[in-house]
Amino acid sequence: NVKAIAHNFNYLISHVILTRGKVSALVFVSLVILTFIFLKNMFQYLSVYFLAPVRTGVVKDIRNAIFSKIIDLPLGYYSGERKGDIISRITTDVNEIEASIIRSLDLFFREPVMIIVYLGSLIYMSPGLTLFVLILLPISGLIIGRIGRTLRRNSARVQKSMGSLLSIIEEAIGGLRIIKAFNAEEKTNEKFFQTNDHYTRLMIKNWRRRDLASPLSEFLGVAILILVMWYGGTLVLGQKSELSSAEFITYIGIFSQIINPAKQFTNAYYSVVKGMASVDRVNYILDTKSTIVEKNNALSLKEFKEAIVYQDVSFRYNTAYVLRNINLTIEKGKTIAIVGQSGSGKSTLVDLLPRFYDVTEGDILIDGNSVKDYKIQDLRNLIGYVNQDPILFNDTFFNNIAFGVDHATEEEVINAAMVANAHEFIMSSPEGYQTFVGDRGGNLSGGQRQRISIARAVLKNPPILILDEATSSLDSESERLVQDALFRLMKNRTSLVIAHRLSTVQHADEICVLHKGEIIERGKHEELLKRNGAYRRLYDIQMFV
After folding, report:
1. What is the pLDDT of residues 84-110, one digit of tens each?
2. In the listed set 46, 71, 96, which residue is the last one of a domain according to the structure?
């Protein structure tokens, strides 16, 4: 027991004094103290050392989970979400979880143990007086819990405001050319400053609540200590307690040791509560159910044999229908063109084929089976996609062309670039195929970006090709080069082409005119011109322009 340890230590000191002298005893005591301090700090460091991989590993797993979920969610999810807010959830919210929750977990579990040990000692010394203490503790817990609830609500507002800040930054960087062209720097700054000011006010309010934990818990602890001293002292002085005066002083001494772990526990509690707002925001994404679901017994699809059939297809994003009663057959090897005014539903129609969205009514069949019956990865492996705004990554020409194709050889990439009329300008760059294209291909012209996108589709070598207004924003020379590359790409493939310029689809096997989500005309170029209908009007407008 403690008395025995103290007695043996005193005996050891006395023995050193008698045999070695007082100076040696002083050195011995100093070394003992230094050893204990060293051991204390060493074990404290070791606890942090071994907890670090656990702590960072948990954060890594959370980031991986949320990023995988972001990639897995369908395109429709992002039409109602701001990119900056999503970025905020995977960065600042995850960082907040680490700073507020994971770093507090050791305190959250260690300090209650200390409190229980001290309370056990107090109960052993005086059950009646300790019962009085236990009656007072819920009052403190009620006050601390009330502040904790407001802290969580306010923390949620803080993280939401940070999401708005990141959204403004993301939009400003993406639209910097327009901001400068319209002299809107001041307006953009004002929008950011207002949001940042709102965020700052929320942060001040949040930190004030968070920092209230330590003084509040200490004040409440001391207040309870004073009440215990008054109540217990009255009992001891009136000889109504089982404790003697000396034992009561010991009781108070032990009780005072509860204050510091209680304060640390309150700090940890407030940190966890603050971080729970970020947990809610992260879980909002993790708990979102994907609307594009693969069946458990999905069929494999390794090749395209016969035809694609849109069968009474209707689609709506929210309440308004974007497509109505679409019936369309695309036989293998044929080229079908979709034309119409902006907003008529052309892009939505082709996005339904690779299941970027699922149809609201009707069905889409490939070789007689619904696209929903096939494995999603197999379905998309058969489809190549070239759109109006080519997406390039901040990587080399080689990696951008080989994107999505595992183990592509240099020869295969070069051949794809040649088919896409991209080899010449790639080789004129400083490091050839190992040259970085810049953020979103910012170092390239529009035509060059489009040809890299075509080369990517060539390398994939898909039997089905979707071209979404692939030449609409190019100058004449770039359009000629891109159109030539597209003709090579479309050869011997089944193609679904969205066209803004009707001159690019005159040789299509069938042209469908889309108006307000419905096919109102279909046929070959010459046939549609003779009908003097919607296609003729679109054609005449373009010829006039």
Report:
1. 888 888 888 888 888 787 767 777 777
2. 71
Which residues make beta-bridge pairs with 519?
A: 514
Q: Is position 145 within any domain?
A: yes
Whether the predicted pLDDT of 343 surpasses 60: yes
Same structural domain, 83 and 38? no
**Number of other CB atoms surrounding residue 105 within 10 Å:** 16
370 forms bridges with which residues in the sheet?
365
| φ/ψ of residue 333, rounded to 5 | 85, -5
Digit-coded pLDDT (tens) for 506-524: 888 999 999 989 999 999 9
Encode pLDDT of 111-127 as tens digits: 788 888 888 888 888 88
**Higher pLDDT residue, 157 or 11?**
157
Indicate the residue among 48, 71, 94 that finishes a domain. 71
d(CA 61, CA 94): 10
Query: What mean pLDDT comes out for the span 403-412?
Result: 86
379 close to 301: Cβ distance less than 8 angstroms? yes
Q: Are residues 516 and 413 in the same domain?
A: yes
Q: What is the pTM of this model?
A: 0.75
The mean pLDDT value of the chain amounts to 83
* Bigger pLDDT: 361 vs 441: 361
Give yes or no: residues 96 and 9 share one domain. no
Give pLDDT, residue 182. Answer: 72
441: phi then psi, degrees, rounded to nearest 5: 75, 30
| CATH number of the domain within which 211 lies | 1.20.1560.10
**DSSP string of 64-101, one letter each residue:** HHHHHHHHHS-HHHHTTS-HHHHHHIIIIIHHHHHHHT
374-398 burial: b if 16+ Cβ within 10 Å, else e: bebeebbbbbbbbbbebebeeebbb
